[in-house]
Amino acid sequence: xxxxxxxxxxxxxxxxxxxVGTFDGVHIGHQKIxxxxxxxxxxxxxxxxxxxxxxxxxxxxxxxxELKLINSQAEKIELLSNTGLDHLIIxxxxxxxxxxxxxxFVRNVLVNxxxxxxxxxxxxxxxxxxxxxxxxxxxEYGPVYGFTVEEISAQDIDDxxxxxxxxxxxxxxxxxxxxxxxxxxxxxxxxKVVRGEGLGKGLGYPTANVLxxxxxxxxxxDGVYAVKCVFPASPEKTFGGMCNIGxxxxxxxxxxxxxxxxFDFDRDIYGEQITLEFVDRIRNEQKFDGKEALKxxxxxDENTARNILPL
Length: 311
Fold this sequence. Notes:
31% helix; alpha/beta; 311 residues; single chain; 10 helices; 14 strands
């Protein structure tokens, strides 16, 4: 998959099958669109192209909404690279670009800059200034500009429409298991292991304090989770563990931390990058009456997490 960070860097294709969207999460609905996109490209003897944007349009148009994202840009690129996509265009989204009319977007971007012959769009897709463009507009423009349109119907699980918004809500509620069902993979946090206060070590449960440097990344609700831990430097080895997100109320913590205890692990990893995959939530974060009560609960949490995690 070739990646471009501006439409101006892309050379128009003769036979392009194109999809457009933010694709945050690259969830099962997105995957269905991308699967159809690659099949469509093959059917016309062309190449598949996804046009997406950075930053997320809502961050530009609704800055007060404080939107958090399921994927970092690096994570999204990696997920998309596994879909069979030929070309990924990540175009800068600005207020000026947002004023592009639906007609200009079709004519100047999709046709002239990309070379669209087939458009594959998701259910209820809109585009252009004020989201004025729709599936009906695309069908109208198609014969004029030489492309055809395929629409993917709503993707449902148990009668619940999948969307990035629903996944974010599940994560905000700590329901990482539901989020994984919608995503078809475990939600993850990546960051650097930094020095903490050593409180876990004093309890017999040393932790890796993970600093997530992407300020736009969504963090699941406070609580204790069963996690899988992966080191990008040696991804072939995965460790089970449990992770606490919160303010450590037993110790009157003043700020939120992400601390992971890795099972059957004994190595200095300060400064290393680590990825935590969230498998299931064990319990809420709570305040205990002293270290001994907390230590007993951690032992129980470990048993629960080991039973949750695959061997």
